[in-house]
Known about the structure:
This protein is α+β, with helices and mostly antiparallel strands. It is built from three helices and five strands. It has one domain (6-122): Trna Endonuclease, Chain: A, domain 1, CATH 3.40.1350. It has helices at 6-23, 66-75, 101-116, and strands at residues 30-31, 44-45, 50-56, 83-89, 95-98.
Amino acid sequence: MKDKSTVEFGKELEHxxxxxxxxxxxxxxxxxxxxxxxxxxxxxxxxxxFVVECKNRNTENITLKQxxxxxxxxxxxxxxxxxxxxxxxxxxxxxxxxMDVNDFFDILLAVxxxxxxxxxxxx
Length: 123
């Protein structure tokens, strides 16, 4: 059996993440054209919440490289509400979403505010 190319290996995770966005109400979510190349804003288009970078690794342990995170953060346009989101998957198909802790708590606060302000029979 022939091993998958790095591009094919990466596409699997990108298609998986795009499908998750579709399930959450982003019907146009898809893998970026030329994903992994310059000129594209993240690996997943058709959603306006995040600038997503996907890394599918053929190792059990995953390391977050500071320079990759810094590059992802630098891709977010000024005055954009999109957040950087780093998706990592290991050889066992375990998948993690990594984001800045302040962004995480801002999202949690927004969810909490929405729940606190909704009618009690809706919670």
